[in-house]
Amino acid sequence: MLTKPIPSTGEALPVIGLGTYRAFNTSLNPFKKKALQDVVRLFFEAGGTLIDSSPMYGKAEAVTGDVLASIDGHGKAFLATKVWTDGRQRGIDEMEDSLRKMRCTEIELMQVHNLVDTDTHLATLREWQAEGKVKYIGITHYTESALGELGRVLKENPEIAFCQFPYSIARRDAEDYFFDLCADLEVATLINRPFEQDGLFNRIKRQAVPEWAAEFGCSSWAQFFLKYIFGHDAATCAIPATSNPDHMADNLIAGEGRLPDAGELKKMADYFDNL
User: Fold this and answer.
1) Cα–Cα separations (whole angstroms), residue 182 to 122, 174, 185, 234, 259
2) Reduced DSSP (H G I as helix, E B as strand, rest coil) percent helix, strand, coil of the chain, to 5
3) Which residues make beta-bridge pairs with 52?
4) How far apart are the C-alpha atoms of 122 and 82, rounded to whole Å?
5) Are 228 and 260 spatial neighbours (Cβ–Cβ below 8 Å)?
6) Residue 206: what pLDDT?
7) pLDDT single digits (tens) 34-92
8) If we measure between CA atoms, which residue out of 241, 143, 139 comes closest to residue 182?
9) DSSP letter at 207?
10) What is the rounded distance in angstroms from the CA atom of residue 158 to the CA atom of residue 166?
11) What is the distance between the alpha carbons of residues 68 and 103, in angstroms, rounded to a whole number?
12) DSSP classification of residue 105
């Protein structure tokens, strides 16, 4: 799988991650557990590593931990989750609970979710990072309207190595300045909602992928939408969520081959805008 460097360290990160929102918030009957095991196995076999969750996602953290343990997958995963509460002690309690649920004693990435009590949690995370419990610190939001506030927090806190926010071929506000800001500050970007929670697929309906998309390796709309994201230099990793092995396999193809160049990205956006 294609990788991009985490700017603050140079560590290579595969461009496709795995989100767990909704997809992993489930009771694990044998059928569902096998499907999720297959999803994660395919993900690892293709070279994927980053799995993103949150205490906000119901059972997702515990299910992630269960599935990884059942396939001996913890050593292959770059685990990311979030803190989403007010207060120092409540934040510590929530993060420790997340580690227990995900069945780990330390984690690659802990993010302040939706900028809730940001300063308090960043102070704790700096301590955890010094103790080796957290490798990277991040912040997140789920709305484009928060990009300005995310940027302010990034400028004031150079320890932040990751920023997660929404971006897709239909929502391109980050192209105006935010990608450049993250690049200047050496911050890796995690792209949530790359399919607009299936909204992009609803828009294209039964239309075929344009033939010219094959020039950069796209044979499905999922691949088209993901490669549009990866084509931007400052887009580090997208985290589509799925519990369907077929969808996982389709998404993973987008992580192979060449990326569209600037002219092709404009062509992709123009084509989508005129659907």
Assistant:
1) 18, 10, 5, 7, 20
2) 50, 15, 35
3) 19, 80
4) 12
5) yes
6) 85
7) 999 999 999 999 999 999 999 999 999 999 999 999 999 999 999 999 999 999 999 99
8) 139
9) P
10) 22
11) 9
12) S
232 is written with which tokens? 């931007």
- Rounded to whole angstroms, the Cα distance separating 165 from 216 reads 25
User: Residue 78 to residues 55, 96, 109, 225: CA-CA distances in angstroms?
Assistant: 17, 17, 8, 23
Amino acid (1-letter code) at residue 136: Y
Domain limits, the chain: 14-273
| Residue 256, token pair as written in the block | 């192979």
241 secondary structure, DSSP code: B
Pairing of strands 107-112, 134-140: parallel
CATH of 14-273, one of 3.20.20.300, 3.20.20.100, 3.30.590.10, 3.40.50.720: 3.20.20.100
Q: Which residues pair with 50 in a beta bridge?
A: 78
Mind giving me the DSSP string for 145-174?
Answer: GGHHHHHHHHHH-TTEEEEEEE--SS--GG
Rounded CA-CA distance 8/136 in Å is 9
What whole-number distance in Å separates Cα of residue 258 and Cα of residue 217?
7
Is the Cβ–Cβ distance between 32 and 26 less than 8 Å? yes
Closest CA to 10 of 202, 224, 137, 188: 188
CB within 8 Å of 211: residues ≥ 6 apart: none
pTM: 0.97
Q: Which helix (H) or strand (E) holds 190?
A: strand 188-192
